[in-house]
From TrEMBL:
It comes from the Bacteria. Belongs to the ABC transporter superfamily. Pfam families: ABC_tran. This is ATP-binding cassette domain-containing protein. Residues 3-228 form the ABC transporter domain. InterPro entries: AAA+_ATPase, ABC_transporter-like_ATP-bd, P-loop_NTPase. Keywords: ATP-binding, Nucleotide-binding, Transport. CDD domains: ABC_DR_subfamily_A (cd03230). The keyword Lyase does not apply. One of its GO terms (molecular function) is ATP binding. It comes from Membranihabitans marinus. PANTHER family: ABC TRANSPORTER, ATP-BINDING PROTEIN. The lineage of its organism: Bacteria, Pseudomonadati, Bacteroidota, Saprospiria, Saprospirales.
Length: 299
């Protein structure tokens, strides 16, 4: 089941926390939500998980409009919050059984999940006796108990030691074989090792969304231009820019264009805007590598 997000917007009082966020995540695989502290990751993920009502915009799981059909949507979603509120005095088995009752799933499912998330050895320990990595596994276990098709993980691996990290990464990759996963982090290297695609968000706005391979390919020095035009343009019309390899829509009227290796798109972009009858409000050449893109955003 894929996810479609359209123009999600959220304000907290005067502060615009998320502004017109739009993207799609097709079924299966991990989409990394990358951005510095305060960028709007948690706010976005909670809106996408159906836990926080957006001021504007829509979220679809497959064809299902989640705010129009919240009960149906809830069955399809598992959410691991950034601060996982686990009850310290409960045993691992107890807490999972408690959530199993809420979701109306069987005791045998609890046993299966305990094995799947690698908690077999720890199931008779209390939550407070577990390391941070194992607590995250309990949180993941709770999130997948009802076998949701979509999994949203808010900073699932921040603060884990290297041994725990590799275990959780592997687990997320295994889950991604059959689920669509959104995974947030403010650390690039975490995202690079787990995600197929990355979305970079900064000050509540989408800056880039692409496959890691394509972002890495841009490190060969391809030109990237972020352009803003005064009206929505059909993607086909951009194919007239012969120096352009591909283009992504970042927001209505906001485009990110990537050139063929060695090509300069500036003149073609201007000529295209004249021919297409749109006003080019802004166009700027971006740095191209994933690391430099992210560095620029996190400074
Ligand atoms: N309940 C709230 N009331 C007021 N402002 C809020 C609230 N929650 C978040 N914000 C603000 O909205 C902005 C986005 O916050 P959000 O938690 O979504 O960012 P984030 O990218 O998840 O950050 P972090 O990596 O630090 O968790 C921040 O400036 C934050 O201070």
């Amino acid at each position: 089941m894929g996810i479609t997000v359209e123009n999600l917007t959220k304000r907290y009082g005067p502060q615009l926390a998320v502004n017109q966020l739009s993207f799609t995540a097709s079924q299966g695989g991990v989409l990394g939500f990358l951005g510095p502290n305060g960028a709007g990751k948690t706010t976005s993920l909670r809106m996408i998980a159906g836990l926080l009502r957006p001021d504007q915009g829509k979220v679809y799981y497959g064809d299902l409009d989640i705010w129009a059909h919240p009960a149906e949507a809830r069955r399809s979603i598992g959410y691991l919050p950034e601060t996982n509120p686990l009850y310290p005095d409960l045993y691992v088995y107890e807490i999972l059984s408690f959530y199993a009752k809420i979701h109306n799933v069987s005791g045998s499912r609890v046993d299966a999940v305990i094995e799947q998330v690698g908690l077999g050895q720890e199931s008779n320990k209390k939550i407070k006796q577990l390391s941070k990595g194992f607590r995250q596994r309990v949180g993941l276990g709770i999130a997948i108990l009802h076998d949701p098709k979509i999994l949203i993980l808010d900073e699932p691996i921040s603060g884990l030691d290297p041994n725990q990290l590799s275990g959780i990464r592997q687990l997320i990759r295994e889950l991604a074989r059959e689920k669509t996963i959104l995974f947030s982090s403010h650390i690039l290297s975490e995202v690079e090792q787990v995600c197929d695609r990355v979305l970079i968000i900064y000050k509540g706005e989408l800056r880039v969304i692409d496959s890691l391979e394509r972002l890495q390919a841009e490190q060969d020095g391809r030109q990237v231009i972020v352009a803003e035009v005064d009206s929505e343009v059909p993607a086909e019309s951009l194919s007239a820019i012969s120096t352009m390899d591909y283009c992504e829509k970042l927001a209505p009227g906001k485009l990110r264009l990537v050139a063929h290796p060695g090509a300069d798109m500036r003149k073609d972009l201007y000529q295209w805007s004249v021919q297409a009858g749109v006003v080019l409000l802004e166009s700027r050449v971006e740095q191209t590598s994933v690391a430099s893109l992210f560095e620029k955003l996190t400074k």
